[in-house]
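Fold this complex.
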Amino acid sequence: MGTGQELMSASGQSRPIRVLVAKPGLDGHDRGAKVMARAFRDAGFEVIYTGLFQTPQMIANAALQEDVDVVGISILSGAHMSLFPPIMDALRDVGREDVLVVAGGTIPTEDIPVLNDIGVAKIFGPGTPLQDAVAYIREHAPDRVDLP
Amino acid sequence: MTDASQRASLSERVLAGDRRALARLLTSIENDDPLGEQVMERLFPHTGSAHLIGITGPPGGGKSTLVNEMIRAYREMGRSIAVIAIDPSSPLTGGAALGDRIRMQEWHADPGVFIRSMASRRFGGGLARNALAVAHAFDAAGFDPIIIETVGTGQDEVAIASLAMTTLLVQAPGTGDGVQTLKAGALEIGDVLVVTKGDRPEAIELARDLRNLRQLGLAAGSELSRWDTPVIKTSAARREGIDSLMNAIAAHWSWLEETGEMEIRVRTMINTEIAFRVQDALLQGIRRPVTRDGGMQRLVERVAAREITPLLAARELLTRLSHNDTPP
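Structure:
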């Protein structure tokens, strides 16, 4: 270890970053999510991979039970503007509004500010190297100490 | 919030069924956070009643799919069930891809089901270092049964059997001939042997070979357990064999209770868990000083140059540790 993939826990010890990788929506393209999961795994993160066809409630429930630091959403269908608001609502409903939400996929630049406004922290558009996402998560995954 | 009131509030919330608090406690436990340790000291008196079930077997053998069918069956009985699903950590990066949950997604709206994935964090034996402590937390929160699904294991990872009340050993057909069932190791530790993918033709043969195990033992005059290990053939695809499996698990529980074996088994479990903790603390204590002063690296070089044997290097290290670098 010691490669920078860890967060500090409340005791000051390092721990791996836990990331949920999910692919919402009805299209069957999971390559993006799998590549994302692989990049995160190889970066030393612990990835909970839930695969295709995730509903907002499935994503929120997994984020709750797995107590992840980060939720990574892959969207290639173009339906991001209708998929993200219910996901953010569902996370709030289970008390996980503290989780860092990042997204990757085919999301046009003009939609990004709207998604940022509803709480999606960072969007990695087509052609972004996954190493940028890894670096972003390392920097921004929250240091969680206490329950709200 | 003071530390003391934080501990009190977290344990009360867990006891009251707050799933967010429980999830956070599990994280603390998994990360060896002192908070998790202290909360568990408060919660431990509330544990000890849940049926702890271990599931082990090779990767891809159908363990997670089987667990999903067991969740369905326990929910039909009205029981709250927790699953600890362990997958391996990378030996290179420490990262992990935890994918067991993908087979158990239909319960996402059911508050009676709690699934937690754990990375092995290189603990070995198909387990994660704090898996048992996580099981205790689920126990305190009122889940019963608690299923621990190990990392997909090979022939020799048997630790789970001394850490669970009932161990299911899962075998999928098509992985070898009858000689495999004669070998020592994992097959000896299952309280229930489960042949998955029972819709495949080779499953019949495998189930027969496994049933013959006891007959071979009897013919050889070996001393056998008083529990007659059942062999259950299941097919999740056809939803077959699950009722028989649930009956076998319940029968094993009754057998433990009625014969007094439960008292013995529970003490074996506690003994194993304490021994694991001691081993782990010793290993951590050794690793720290060894990596700090580069002593390990020098010994590795001497062994590589064939100056000393690995055994001698280990002895030297232990001598040095016991003399001047006592683990904290």
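The radius of gyration of chain B is 22 Å.
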